[in-house]
Design goal:
Elements (H helix, E strand, L loop, with lengths): L1 H7 L26 E10 L2 E17 L2 E12 L1 H4 L4 E9 L5 E10 L2 E10 L5 E8 L5 E8 L4 E2 L2 H6 L12 E8 L2 E16 L5 E13 L4 E11 L6 E8 L2 E11 L8 E2 L1
Parallel strand pairs: 9-10
Antiparallel strand pairs: 1-2, 1-15, 2-3, 3-4, 4-5, 5-6, 6-7, 7-8, 10-11, 11-12, 12-13, 12-16, 13-14, 14-15
């Protein structure tokens, strides 16, 4: 179920562009205290079964003595999923008030495997310098560094930044290219805008949404592979309402259940 986390909030790569390092941006989309929750479903023998929950919270805090926003994503499989696959993941990310990444950590229990990914960000000479660490499931460690002329993000901190970008000028078929980091390196990804649709959440509310398709470059295939489709509110909050995920062993979906503490009115609601 790794792609549920990888793509669920690697929407997160929502509206990202390849621009210069650090890339300060005014936060227009969220405030401290926002909480989003989701139901997770898996297609098991042609039947959609609820297999877990996810929650994302944002709070104002300090990172190394400076003002920052902290995001925390928690995913938990239920008993139905545990029979096939144990899922207990916690992701934590820090960004500056102008939405530049500072730190990312993912601790994942997936099946009998426990792994940790970490990324530290620094911005010397208008470049993005990364320090990356991975604790593998066998207990070994991998460490690497990378310096980029471009902005670099991770699957959680990109969410905080992407929500404040304005995609109103996009036309159907428009794509954006960007770089995403984890504890073991960076990956090139694409986001394709596929128009607008009405989507109903698990809160029984209908929203006008933008449809976005997420693809990652697969070096072995020399091509991009589609991993997910996101339906995000067509308003200044840009909250994901539904996510369709393609896994190696089936398909999964996530539907929003609650949106609390939104910064802006949810003008995308269809009454």
């Amino acid at each position: 179920m790794q792609k549920i986390r990888t793509t669920l909030f690697a929407l997160l790569t929502l509206f990202a562009s390849s621009v210069m390092a650090q890339c300060p941006l005014t936060n227009t989309a969220f405030k401290s205290g926002e909480t989003l929750t989701y139901n997770l479903y898996f297609n098991w023998k042609f039947v959609w079964v609820k297999v877990g929950l996810a929650s994302l919270t944002t709070s104002q805090t300090k990172y190394q003595g400076k003002d920052a926003f902290r995001s925390s994503l928690i995913t938990r499989g239920n008993g139905k999923l545990d029979k096939f696959f144990v899922m207990r993941d916690t992701l934590t990310g820090y960004v500056t008030p102008t939405l530049s990444p500072l730190y990312f950590r993912k601790g994942a229990v997936e099946g009998k495997r426990y792994t940790v990914d970490e990324v530290w960000y620094d911005y010397p000479n208008s470049k993005c310098k990364l320090k990356m660490h991975r604790l593998r499931h066998d207990g070994t460690h991998a460490r690497s560094e990378k310096t980029s002329e471009q902005c670099v993000y991770d699957m959680l901190n990109i969410f905080s930044r992407a929500r404040s970008l304005d995609p109103s000028g996009w036309k159907k078929g428009h794509t954006e290219k960007f770089l995403v980091a984890d504890g073991d390196g960076t990956t090139t990804a694409l986001l394709r805008y596929d128009g607008k649709e009405t989507v109903k959440g698990d809160n029984n509310v209908k929203y006008r949404c933008m449809k976005l398709t997420y693809l990652e470059w697969k070096e072995s295939k020399k091509a991009y592979r589609q991993y997910a489709t996101f339906f995000v509110t067509d308003d200044s909050n840009h909250v994901p309402v539904r996510i369709d995920i393609t896994l190696n062993f089936g398909n999964a979906k996530a539907f929003v259940t609650t949106m609390k503490g939104n910064r802006n009115p949810l003008t995308s609601i269809i009454k």
